[in-house]
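Async update (no meeting this week)

Hi team, since we skipped the sync, here's where things stand on the single-chain job. The sequence we agreed to prioritize is pasted below, unchanged from the tracker. I ran it this morning and attached the output directly underneath so nobody has to dig for it. Comments welcome in thread, and please keep replies under the output.
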Amino acid sequence: MTQANAVRAAPADFSSVDRLEQIGLLALIGVAAALHFSIAAAQSLLAIAIACWLALVVIRRERVDVPRFFWPLVGLAGATLLSAAFSSQPRVSFADCKQLLLFLIVPMTYRFAIGPRSPLILTVIVTLGATSAALGIFQYGILHYDNLGLRPRGVLGHYMTYSGLLMLVMGAALAQLVFGRRERLWAGLVMPALAVGIAVTFTRSAMIGACAAAALLLALRDLRLVAIVPLVAAVFLAIAPAGLTTRVVSMFDLSDPTNRDRVAMLSEGARMVRAHPLVGVGPNMVEVLYPAYRGSDAVEKVNPHLHNVPLQIAAERGLPALVLWLAFVATVFYDLLAKAGNQPMLRAAGLAALVAMLAAGMFEHNFGDSEFLMLLLILLTLPFAAGRPTSPAPSSATHA
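Output:
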């Protein structure tokens, strides 16, 4: 190609790259929005965003940069695949491993949510989450989704997924309220809807996670503000309908069947770990093998998972996988506190998401829920992406 032809071709090349940048960003924003309404739409948009990211890596020869916490996730993915290889039903286990592709959300978000884009994406998450919460409140108050047999779930397939997403969104909104500036007014307006939306799902793990996130954020702002959390809880118990207060109080009732079953699962999970300490029983095999490890104190004959994230990972994938997951958690926590740029609001939102996941994850396997995992990884990556330059350099450039 002559020099003149190369000059003429340059604008077209730049235009195609620019379009990929715009489509990738819009697809990422679409993922954050669609998660509250359709997993199919969210995953389709995610595929578009990842395709645009990979195309930019190839066309611009960009180096693939990632936050440090991505590497323990890579290790966890490897341990999961190894566990699947040693599973008693490898085909079943490998089919479940497709969820590992969701880990690509981290480098993709790190690439597209650069600079001022991250606060915008956070506002989209809070706004659409509040819309979903309003729908759940409508279902509770008008459509009588007001009991354990029929709970609000928005337009999602399960109330646990719905409440888990609202829990993450509430943490993000509270981060805007406590650490934001221009975002404070909107966050304050939607906060009641998010809190009520979580409460009316009757999901105790989400309530615990939301309270843990709130306590952390208030403590980070001013330790004395933590006293607000029990005061709000007391007001809730005083004015909430009897069904909701009974559900909250049942957290402390050891005779409650679901509580007894969760305690029993600790023993069943421990037996699985002792029998398969290195590679676990295999992805998606806990439900299949549950009857073989079930104790006499268990309530349900079969459970799809062990309702505890660390125990589920250890039983399903082995103790090395648990160590890698703990390394992921520790790296995120340390880096959000120490290294995630100068974005206190985004750092707070990431910390709130992490703590909420951990607290709720003691009673629910939320890390294995695709919608929840997608939103969690976006929220954890945003503060790191915000500190990146707005124009990522190609791989031939010098990187700090």
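Quick observations from my side:
The CA atoms of residues 341 and 387 lie 5 Å apart.
The mean pLDDT is 91.
Reply here if anything looks off.
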